[in-house]
Every structure is written in C-alpha cells, then in structure tokens.
Recover the amino acids of this structure.
C-alpha cells in the first residue's frame, strides 16, 4: 500500500487523443456546431479502460435490454445478483428490479447512428 508521501508509480505512455476529431467524426455529434464541439472537447476527458473491458456495439447494447435466460441480459443478470446481495449481507432485502433498466437512451442513439 502506498502512503500519501510516496511518489506514485510512473504512468505508462498513452496515445494522445484529439477529442475534437473524435467528436467531429462520430455520427452522434454531427448535428453539433463547431462551437458546441469545442465546448465538449474542453470539458470532456479521455477514459482508459482496463484490459478485458468490453464496450458493447449498438446491437449488443440493445440486446442487453431484452429479457432472456442469457447472462448478456441485464434483467437476467440482475436477477442472479439480487439473491447474492442478500445472502452475502450486502443488502437487507432483494432490490425491486421492475423498471430498473431503461433502454430509451440506447434506442435513441441506435436510431440516430443508423440514420
């Protein structure tokens, strides 16, 4: 464990990302003006994910909201996790899962990206 007085480990060299270019090329941001792109670029940050992290495709993200008996279904997986949360003492009772997952943003994005 590192104390506050110790120097943090050196960061690995990361590729520089031109956020403005990313916003300009992505269909979701096409309707934005150059000033709006500039605003986003100024206040956004680049996020690096751990090795093995999966970023869903639009189709996979939409499929995750469907009810199924597959672990890729959000509702199915939440149903599996719910009893574990209680049995492990992390929760006093199972959570109400009705309406927990809202696909509206993902569906809106999918429509905009395909058009």
């Amino acid at each position: 464990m590192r104390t506050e007085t110790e120097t943090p480990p050196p960061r690995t060299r990361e590729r520089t990302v031109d956020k403005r270019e990313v916003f300009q090329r992505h269909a979701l941001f096409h309707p934005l003006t150059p000033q709006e792109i500039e605003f986003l670029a100024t206040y956004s940050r680049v996020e690096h994910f751990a090795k093995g992290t999966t970023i869903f495709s639009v189709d996979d993200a939409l499929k995750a909201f469907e009810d199924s008996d597959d672990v890729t279904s959000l509702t199915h997986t939440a149903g599996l996790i719910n009893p574990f949360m209680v049995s492990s003492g992390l929760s006093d009772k199972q959570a109400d899962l009705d309406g927990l997952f809202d696909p509206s943003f993902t569906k809106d994005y999918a429509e905009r990206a395909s058009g």
The chain has two domains: 16-47, 56-115. DSSP finds five helices and no strands in the chain.
